[in-house]
Automatic annotation (TrEMBL):
<feature type="transmembrane region" description="Helical">
    <location>
        <begin position="47"/>
        <end position="68"/>
    </location>
</feature>
<feature type="transmembrane region" description="Helical">
    <location>
        <begin position="258"/>
        <end position="277"/>
    </location>
</feature>
<keyword id="KW-0812">Transmembrane</keyword>
<feature type="transmembrane region" description="Helical">
    <location>
        <begin position="89"/>
        <end position="119"/>
    </location>
</feature>
<keyword id="KW-0813">Transport</keyword>
<dbReference type="InterPro" id="IPR020846">
    <property type="entry name" value="MFS_dom"/>
</dbReference>
<dbReference type="GO" id="GO:0022857">
    <property type="term" value="F:transmembrane transporter activity"/>
</dbReference>
<feature type="transmembrane region" description="Helical">
    <location>
        <begin position="223"/>
        <end position="246"/>
    </location>
</feature>
<dbReference type="Pfam" id="PF05977">
    <property type="entry name" value="MFS_3"/>
</dbReference>
<feature type="transmembrane region" description="Helical">
    <location>
        <begin position="354"/>
        <end position="376"/>
    </location>
</feature>
<protein>
    <submittedName>
        <fullName>Predicted arabinose efflux permease, MFS family</fullName>
    </submittedName>
</protein>
<keyword id="KW-0472">Membrane</keyword>
<feature type="transmembrane region" description="Helical">
    <location>
        <begin position="382"/>
        <end position="402"/>
    </location>
</feature>
<dbReference type="InterPro" id="IPR010290">
    <property type="entry name" value="TM_effector"/>
</dbReference>
<keyword id="KW-1133">Transmembrane helix</keyword>
<feature type="transmembrane region" description="Helical">
    <location>
        <begin position="160"/>
        <end position="180"/>
    </location>
</feature>
<feature type="transmembrane region" description="Helical">
    <location>
        <begin position="21"/>
        <end position="41"/>
    </location>
</feature>
Length: 425
Protein backbone atom coordinates (compact mmCIF):
# COMPACT_ATOMS: atom_id res chain seq x y z
CA UNK A 1 0.00 0.00 0.00
CA UNK A 2 1.37 3.41 -1.03
CA UNK A 3 2.23 5.72 1.87
CA UNK A 4 -0.08 8.70 2.16
CA UNK A 5 2.98 10.94 2.11
CA UNK A 6 3.53 9.71 -1.47
CA UNK A 7 -0.16 9.93 -2.39
CA UNK A 8 -0.49 12.93 -4.73
CA UNK A 9 -4.13 13.77 -4.05
CA UNK A 10 -3.83 13.36 -0.29
CA UNK A 11 -0.77 15.62 -0.17
CA UNK A 12 -2.68 18.36 -1.99
CA UNK A 13 -5.63 18.08 0.37
CA UNK A 14 -3.47 17.91 3.48
CA UNK A 15 -1.36 20.98 2.70
CA UNK A 16 -4.40 22.91 1.44
CA UNK A 17 -6.39 22.07 4.56
CA UNK A 18 -3.49 23.14 6.77
CA UNK A 19 -3.07 26.48 4.97
CA UNK A 20 -6.81 27.14 5.04
CA UNK A 21 -7.21 26.38 8.74
CA UNK A 22 -4.18 28.46 9.70
CA UNK A 23 -5.77 31.31 7.73
CA UNK A 24 -9.04 30.88 9.60
CA UNK A 25 -7.25 31.07 12.95
CA UNK A 26 -5.30 34.17 11.88
CA UNK A 27 -8.55 35.87 10.89
CA UNK A 28 -10.03 34.96 14.27
CA UNK A 29 -7.28 36.96 16.00
CA UNK A 30 -6.59 39.72 13.46
CA UNK A 31 -10.19 40.90 13.03
CA UNK A 32 -10.70 41.61 16.76
CA UNK A 33 -7.34 43.41 16.91
CA UNK A 34 -8.39 45.57 13.95
CA UNK A 35 -11.69 46.33 15.70
CA UNK A 36 -10.03 47.28 19.02
CA UNK A 37 -6.78 48.92 17.93
CA UNK A 38 -7.88 50.61 14.70
CA UNK A 39 -11.62 51.20 15.09
CA UNK A 40 -11.87 51.55 18.93
CA UNK A 41 -14.71 49.05 19.22
CA UNK A 42 -16.74 48.80 22.43
CA UNK A 43 -17.46 45.48 24.23
CA UNK A 44 -20.91 45.33 22.64
CA UNK A 45 -19.50 45.97 19.16
CA UNK A 46 -16.96 43.21 19.76
CA UNK A 47 -19.82 40.91 20.67
CA UNK A 48 -21.57 41.65 17.39
CA UNK A 49 -18.36 40.98 15.47
CA UNK A 50 -17.84 37.61 17.18
CA UNK A 51 -21.45 36.67 16.55
CA UNK A 52 -21.20 37.47 12.83
CA UNK A 53 -17.99 35.43 12.47
CA UNK A 54 -19.78 32.29 13.62
CA UNK A 55 -23.47 32.95 12.89
CA UNK A 56 -23.37 30.88 9.69
CA UNK A 57 -22.83 27.70 11.72
CA UNK A 58 -26.16 28.36 13.41
CA UNK A 59 -28.02 29.55 10.32
CA UNK A 60 -26.88 27.34 7.44
CA UNK A 61 -24.72 24.47 8.75
CA UNK A 62 -27.51 21.88 8.50
CA UNK A 63 -28.51 22.54 4.87
CA UNK A 64 -24.81 23.02 4.00
CA UNK A 65 -24.16 19.43 5.04
CA UNK A 66 -26.91 18.11 2.78
CA UNK A 67 -25.75 20.29 -0.12
CA UNK A 68 -22.13 19.16 0.28
CA UNK A 69 -23.29 15.53 0.08
CA UNK A 70 -24.95 16.44 -3.26
CA UNK A 71 -22.11 18.51 -4.81
CA UNK A 72 -18.55 17.84 -5.94
CA UNK A 73 -16.56 18.52 -2.81
CA UNK A 74 -13.46 19.66 -4.71
CA UNK A 75 -15.43 22.55 -6.19
CA UNK A 76 -16.89 23.45 -2.80
CA UNK A 77 -13.42 23.70 -1.27
CA UNK A 78 -11.97 25.80 -4.10
CA UNK A 79 -14.88 28.24 -4.15
CA UNK A 80 -14.97 28.60 -0.36
CA UNK A 81 -11.28 29.50 -0.24
CA UNK A 82 -11.59 31.94 -3.14
CA UNK A 83 -14.54 33.75 -1.55
CA UNK A 84 -12.68 34.10 1.75
CA UNK A 85 -9.58 35.47 0.05
CA UNK A 86 -11.50 38.10 -1.91
CA UNK A 87 -13.54 39.21 1.10
CA UNK A 88 -10.47 39.63 3.33
CA UNK A 89 -8.54 41.51 0.65
CA UNK A 90 -11.05 44.39 0.91
CA UNK A 91 -9.94 45.21 4.48
CA UNK A 92 -6.30 46.25 3.83
CA UNK A 93 -7.43 48.16 0.74
CA UNK A 94 -9.97 50.14 2.79
CA UNK A 95 -7.41 50.63 5.58
CA UNK A 96 -4.82 52.09 3.20
CA UNK A 97 -7.50 54.39 1.75
CA UNK A 98 -8.52 55.46 5.29
CA UNK A 99 -12.04 54.20 4.59
CA UNK A 100 -12.26 51.18 6.91
CA UNK A 101 -15.39 50.98 9.07
CA UNK A 102 -16.93 48.56 11.55
CA UNK A 103 -19.75 48.00 9.07
CA UNK A 104 -17.28 46.64 6.51
CA UNK A 105 -15.68 44.47 9.18
CA UNK A 106 -19.11 43.03 10.01
CA UNK A 107 -19.85 42.19 6.37
CA UNK A 108 -16.46 40.54 5.84
CA UNK A 109 -16.85 38.53 9.05
CA UNK A 110 -20.24 37.21 7.90
CA UNK A 111 -19.01 36.32 4.39
CA UNK A 112 -15.87 34.59 5.64
CA UNK A 113 -17.88 32.73 8.28
CA UNK A 114 -20.34 31.43 5.67
CA UNK A 115 -17.57 30.20 3.37
CA UNK A 116 -15.84 28.55 6.34
CA UNK A 117 -18.95 26.48 7.07
CA UNK A 118 -18.86 24.98 3.58
CA UNK A 119 -15.10 24.40 3.68
CA UNK A 120 -15.15 22.70 7.09
CA UNK A 121 -18.01 20.37 6.17
CA UNK A 122 -16.53 19.50 2.77
CA UNK A 123 -12.91 18.79 3.71
CA UNK A 124 -13.78 16.24 6.40
CA UNK A 125 -16.16 14.52 3.97
CA UNK A 126 -13.78 14.54 0.98
CA UNK A 127 -11.05 12.22 2.26
CA UNK A 128 -12.96 8.90 1.87
CA UNK A 129 -13.33 9.55 -1.85
CA UNK A 130 -9.61 10.06 -2.57
CA UNK A 131 -7.88 7.37 -0.46
CA UNK A 132 -8.41 3.65 0.01
CA UNK A 133 -10.62 2.40 2.82
CA UNK A 134 -7.73 0.96 4.84
CA UNK A 135 -5.94 4.35 4.65
CA UNK A 136 -8.80 6.28 6.23
CA UNK A 137 -7.57 6.01 9.81
CA UNK A 138 -4.09 7.25 8.88
CA UNK A 139 -5.51 10.00 6.66
CA UNK A 140 -8.04 11.18 9.22
CA UNK A 141 -5.35 11.22 11.87
CA UNK A 142 -3.07 13.43 9.76
CA UNK A 143 -5.88 15.81 8.82
CA UNK A 144 -7.11 16.05 12.40
CA UNK A 145 -3.66 16.70 13.84
CA UNK A 146 -3.09 19.28 11.11
CA UNK A 147 -6.38 21.00 11.98
CA UNK A 148 -5.61 20.85 15.68
CA UNK A 149 -2.14 22.31 15.21
CA UNK A 150 -3.59 25.06 13.00
CA UNK A 151 -6.00 26.02 15.79
CA UNK A 152 -3.09 26.99 17.97
CA UNK A 153 -0.27 27.69 15.51
CA UNK A 154 -2.51 30.16 13.66
CA UNK A 155 -2.98 32.48 16.65
CA UNK A 156 0.69 32.03 17.53
CA UNK A 157 1.76 33.01 14.02
CA UNK A 158 -0.56 36.00 14.22
CA UNK A 159 1.08 37.07 17.45
CA UNK A 160 4.51 37.00 15.85
CA UNK A 161 3.40 38.85 12.72
CA UNK A 162 1.55 41.52 14.72
CA UNK A 163 4.93 42.66 16.00
CA UNK A 164 6.00 43.72 12.51
CA UNK A 165 2.74 44.24 10.57
CA UNK A 166 -0.40 46.26 11.22
CA UNK A 167 -3.38 43.96 11.72
CA UNK A 168 -5.22 45.08 8.55
CA UNK A 169 -2.10 44.52 6.42
CA UNK A 170 -1.65 41.08 7.98
CA UNK A 171 -4.91 40.01 6.34
CA UNK A 172 -3.15 40.22 2.93
CA UNK A 173 -1.03 37.27 4.04
CA UNK A 174 -4.15 35.40 5.12
CA UNK A 175 -5.87 36.01 1.78
CA UNK A 176 -2.80 34.67 -0.01
CA UNK A 177 -2.96 31.54 2.15
CA UNK A 178 -6.55 30.92 1.11
CA UNK A 179 -5.63 31.31 -2.56
CA UNK A 180 -2.78 28.81 -2.09
CA UNK A 181 -5.26 26.37 -0.56
CA UNK A 182 -7.65 26.79 -3.50
CA UNK A 183 -4.82 26.17 -5.97
CA UNK A 184 -3.68 22.99 -4.24
CA UNK A 185 -7.20 21.54 -4.04
CA UNK A 186 -7.71 22.30 -7.73
CA UNK A 187 -4.70 20.05 -8.48
CA UNK A 188 -6.37 16.97 -6.99
CA UNK A 189 -6.83 14.53 -9.88
CA UNK A 190 -9.63 12.40 -8.49
CA UNK A 191 -13.14 13.40 -9.58
CA UNK A 192 -15.57 12.61 -6.80
CA UNK A 193 -18.91 11.11 -7.78
CA UNK A 194 -22.08 12.82 -6.65
CA UNK A 195 -25.39 10.97 -6.16
CA UNK A 196 -27.79 10.82 -9.07
CA UNK A 197 -30.58 13.38 -8.86
CA UNK A 198 -33.12 10.56 -9.00
CA UNK A 199 -31.79 9.15 -5.71
CA UNK A 200 -32.10 12.40 -3.77
CA UNK A 201 -34.79 12.88 -1.19
CA UNK A 202 -36.21 16.09 0.12
CA UNK A 203 -33.59 18.33 1.71
CA UNK A 204 -35.41 18.25 5.04
CA UNK A 205 -35.32 14.44 5.15
CA UNK A 206 -31.59 14.31 4.39
CA UNK A 207 -30.85 16.92 7.07
CA UNK A 208 -32.93 14.99 9.61
CA UNK A 209 -30.99 11.80 8.90
CA UNK A 210 -27.63 13.41 9.71
CA UNK A 211 -28.93 15.25 12.77
CA UNK A 212 -30.64 12.09 14.02
CA UNK A 213 -27.40 10.12 13.83
CA UNK A 214 -25.76 12.61 16.21
CA UNK A 215 -28.53 13.19 18.76
CA UNK A 216 -29.60 9.53 19.07
CA UNK A 217 -26.11 8.24 19.85
CA UNK A 218 -25.69 7.85 23.61
CA UNK A 219 -22.09 9.16 23.63
CA UNK A 220 -22.14 11.62 20.74
CA UNK A 221 -24.95 13.66 22.26
CA UNK A 222 -22.99 14.04 25.50
CA UNK A 223 -19.87 15.08 23.60
CA UNK A 224 -21.71 17.69 21.53
CA UNK A 225 -23.42 18.98 24.70
CA UNK A 226 -20.00 19.44 26.32
CA UNK A 227 -18.45 21.03 23.23
CA UNK A 228 -21.41 23.30 22.52
CA UNK A 229 -21.57 24.58 26.10
CA UNK A 230 -17.81 25.04 26.21
CA UNK A 231 -17.91 27.02 22.97
CA UNK A 232 -20.77 29.18 24.28
CA UNK A 233 -18.72 30.35 27.26
CA UNK A 234 -15.41 30.21 25.40
CA UNK A 235 -16.85 32.75 22.96
CA UNK A 236 -17.28 35.17 25.88
CA UNK A 237 -13.54 34.98 26.52
CA UNK A 238 -12.77 35.21 22.81
CA UNK A 239 -14.92 38.32 22.50
CA UNK A 240 -13.29 40.14 25.39
CA UNK A 241 -9.67 38.89 25.28
CA UNK A 242 -8.24 41.68 23.12
CA UNK A 243 -10.07 44.31 25.18
CA UNK A 244 -8.91 42.67 28.40
CA UNK A 245 -5.24 42.45 27.46
CA UNK A 246 -4.92 45.80 25.68
CA UNK A 247 -7.19 47.99 27.84
CA UNK A 248 -7.87 46.37 31.22
CA UNK A 249 -4.34 45.04 31.79
CA UNK A 250 -2.71 47.84 29.79
CA UNK A 251 -0.41 45.51 27.90
CA UNK A 252 0.84 46.12 24.36
CA UNK A 253 -0.19 44.46 21.10
CA UNK A 254 3.22 42.77 20.97
CA UNK A 255 2.57 41.28 24.42
CA UNK A 256 -0.78 40.00 23.19
CA UNK A 257 1.14 38.44 20.33
CA UNK A 258 3.60 36.87 22.78
CA UNK A 259 0.75 35.35 24.78
CA UNK A 260 -0.82 33.90 21.65
CA UNK A 261 2.52 32.56 20.42
CA UNK A 262 3.21 30.84 23.73
CA UNK A 263 -0.22 29.26 23.67
CA UNK A 264 0.71 27.57 20.42
CA UNK A 265 3.27 25.47 22.30
CA UNK A 266 0.49 23.92 24.37
CA UNK A 267 -1.47 23.05 21.26
CA UNK A 268 1.51 21.41 19.61
CA UNK A 269 2.06 19.38 22.76
CA UNK A 270 -1.60 18.39 22.72
CA UNK A 271 -1.43 17.25 19.11
CA UNK A 272 1.47 14.93 19.85
CA UNK A 273 0.32 13.70 23.27
CA UNK A 274 -3.36 13.04 22.53
CA UNK A 275 -2.84 9.54 21.13
CA UNK A 276 -0.30 8.44 23.80
CA UNK A 277 -2.57 9.82 26.53
CA UNK A 278 -5.48 7.90 25.06
CA UNK A 279 -3.43 4.72 25.09
CA UNK A 280 -2.28 5.35 28.66
CA UNK A 281 -5.60 6.10 30.37
CA UNK A 282 -8.06 5.20 27.62
CA UNK A 283 -9.66 7.35 24.91
CA UNK A 284 -12.95 7.36 26.79
CA UNK A 285 -11.49 8.71 30.06
CA UNK A 286 -9.22 11.20 28.31
CA UNK A 287 -12.19 13.08 26.83
CA UNK A 288 -13.84 14.15 30.15
CA UNK A 289 -10.48 14.73 31.84
CA UNK A 290 -9.34 17.09 29.09
CA UNK A 291 -12.70 18.90 29.27
CA UNK A 292 -12.19 19.54 33.01
CA UNK A 293 -8.60 20.66 32.41
CA UNK A 294 -9.81 23.24 29.87
CA UNK A 295 -12.04 24.97 32.43
CA UNK A 296 -9.36 24.87 35.11
CA UNK A 297 -6.70 26.47 32.92
CA UNK A 298 -9.21 29.08 31.72
CA UNK A 299 -9.30 30.52 35.25
CA UNK A 300 -5.71 31.76 34.88
CA UNK A 301 -6.84 34.43 32.39
CA UNK A 302 -9.00 36.53 34.77
CA UNK A 303 -6.58 35.74 37.64
CA UNK A 304 -4.01 37.85 35.79
CA UNK A 305 -6.01 40.94 36.78
CA UNK A 306 -5.19 40.50 40.49
CA UNK A 307 -1.40 40.49 40.07
CA UNK A 308 1.04 43.06 38.76
CA UNK A 309 3.94 43.33 36.34
CA UNK A 310 5.45 40.27 34.76
CA UNK A 311 3.19 37.97 36.78
CA UNK A 312 0.30 39.04 34.56
CA UNK A 313 2.09 37.84 31.45
CA UNK A 314 3.15 34.61 33.18
CA UNK A 315 -0.45 33.75 34.11
CA UNK A 316 -1.74 34.61 30.64
CA UNK A 317 0.96 32.48 28.99
CA UNK A 318 0.41 29.55 31.38
CA UNK A 319 -3.33 29.72 30.83
CA UNK A 320 -2.90 29.85 27.07
CA UNK A 321 -0.59 26.84 27.06
CA UNK A 322 -2.91 24.80 29.28
CA UNK A 323 -6.09 25.72 27.42
CA UNK A 324 -4.53 24.94 24.05
CA UNK A 325 -3.20 21.59 25.24
CA UNK A 326 -6.56 20.52 26.68
CA UNK A 327 -8.60 21.67 23.67
CA UNK A 328 -6.39 19.84 21.17
CA UNK A 329 -6.34 16.59 23.17
CA UNK A 330 -10.13 16.74 23.48
CA UNK A 331 -10.65 17.51 19.79
CA UNK A 332 -8.24 14.90 18.44
CA UNK A 333 -9.92 12.14 20.46
CA UNK A 334 -13.58 13.06 19.97
CA UNK A 335 -13.33 13.97 16.27
CA UNK A 336 -11.46 10.75 15.48
CA UNK A 337 -14.14 8.82 17.39
CA UNK A 338 -17.07 10.24 15.46
CA UNK A 339 -15.30 9.88 12.10
CA UNK A 340 -14.70 6.18 12.77
CA UNK A 341 -18.31 5.72 13.80
CA UNK A 342 -20.11 7.45 10.92
CA UNK A 343 -21.07 5.74 7.63
CA UNK A 344 -19.33 7.46 4.66
CA UNK A 345 -22.61 8.48 3.02
CA UNK A 346 -23.51 10.51 6.13
CA UNK A 347 -20.16 12.21 6.70
CA UNK A 348 -21.17 15.59 5.30
CA UNK A 349 -24.44 15.71 7.21
CA UNK A 350 -22.92 14.32 10.42
CA UNK A 351 -20.12 16.92 10.36
CA UNK A 352 -22.61 19.68 9.58
CA UNK A 353 -24.96 18.56 12.36
CA UNK A 354 -22.14 18.55 14.92
CA UNK A 355 -21.01 21.99 13.78
CA UNK A 356 -24.57 23.31 13.91
CA UNK A 357 -24.78 22.32 17.56
CA UNK A 358 -21.27 23.04 18.82
CA UNK A 359 -20.46 26.14 16.75
CA UNK A 360 -24.02 27.43 16.69
CA UNK A 361 -23.62 28.47 20.32
CA UNK A 362 -20.66 30.72 19.53
CA UNK A 363 -22.56 33.70 18.07
CA UNK A 364 -24.80 33.59 21.13
CA UNK A 365 -21.72 33.52 23.34
CA UNK A 366 -20.22 36.43 21.43
CA UNK A 367 -23.30 38.56 21.99
CA UNK A 368 -23.48 37.46 25.62
CA UNK A 369 -19.85 38.45 26.09
CA UNK A 370 -20.53 41.90 24.68
CA UNK A 371 -23.58 42.38 26.91
CA UNK A 372 -21.83 41.10 30.06
CA UNK A 373 -18.70 43.12 29.36
CA UNK A 374 -20.82 46.26 29.12
CA UNK A 375 -23.14 45.49 32.05
CA UNK A 376 -20.82 44.03 34.72
CA UNK A 377 -17.34 44.73 33.35
CA UNK A 378 -14.76 42.73 31.44
CA UNK A 379 -13.17 40.88 34.36
CA UNK A 380 -16.45 39.69 35.96
CA UNK A 381 -17.61 38.55 32.52
CA UNK A 382 -14.43 36.47 32.17
CA UNK A 383 -15.18 34.76 35.51
CA UNK A 384 -18.66 33.93 34.23
CA UNK A 385 -16.97 32.32 31.23
CA UNK A 386 -14.72 30.23 33.50
CA UNK A 387 -17.70 28.98 35.52
CA UNK A 388 -19.52 28.06 32.31
CA UNK A 389 -16.54 26.20 30.89
CA UNK A 390 -16.28 24.10 34.06
CA UNK A 391 -20.02 23.42 33.85
CA UNK A 392 -19.56 22.29 30.23
CA UNK A 393 -17.54 19.27 31.38
CA UNK A 394 -20.48 17.80 33.36
CA UNK A 395 -22.16 15.91 30.44
CA UNK A 396 -18.98 13.93 29.72
CA UNK A 397 -17.80 13.57 33.33
CA UNK A 398 -21.17 12.19 34.48
CA UNK A 399 -21.34 9.69 31.64
CA UNK A 400 -20.15 6.22 30.59
CA UNK A 401 -17.03 7.85 29.12
CA UNK A 402 -15.37 8.24 32.52
CA UNK A 403 -15.34 4.47 32.98
CA UNK A 404 -14.33 3.52 29.43
CA UNK A 405 -10.89 2.81 28.04
CA UNK A 406 -11.87 2.07 24.45
CA UNK A 407 -14.53 3.94 22.49
CA UNK A 408 -17.00 1.92 20.39
CA UNK A 409 -16.47 1.63 16.64
CA UNK A 410 -19.69 -0.12 15.58
CA UNK A 411 -22.01 1.76 13.25
CA UNK A 412 -25.06 0.40 15.11
CA UNK A 413 -24.27 2.33 18.29
CA UNK A 414 -27.16 4.71 17.57
CA UNK A 415 -29.59 1.94 18.41
CA UNK A 416 -28.18 1.26 21.86
CA UNK A 417 -30.01 2.72 24.87
CA UNK A 418 -28.52 5.08 27.42
CA UNK A 419 -26.74 3.27 30.26
CA UNK A 420 -25.65 4.37 33.70
CA UNK A 421 -22.21 5.99 34.13
CA UNK A 422 -21.07 2.90 36.03
CA UNK A 423 -21.63 0.63 33.05
CA UNK A 424 -18.93 0.97 30.36
CA UNK A 425 -20.36 0.47 26.91
Amino acid sequence: MTSLLRHHDFRQLWVAETASHVGTQVVGVALPVVAVAVLSATPLEMGVLTALETAAFLLIALPAGAWVDRWRRQRVLVRADTVRALALATIPVAYLLDALTLGQLYVVAAVVGTATVFFDVAYQSYLPSIVDRDQLTDGNGKLEISRAVAQVAGPGLTGVLLRVLAAPVLLVVTAAGYLLSAFLVSRIRHVDVVPERSTRRRLREEIAEGLGFVVRHRLLRRIVACTGTGNLFGAITGTLLALYVLRTLGLSESTLGLVLSAGAAGGLAGAFTAAPLGRLIGDGRAIPLSAVAFGAFAALTPLASVVDGAARVVLLVAGGIGISWAVVVYNVLQVSFRQRLCPPRLLGRMNASVRFIVFGTMPLGGLLGGVLGTAIGVVPALWVAVAGQLLAAVPVVVSPLIGMRDLPRELDETARPEVSPATPG
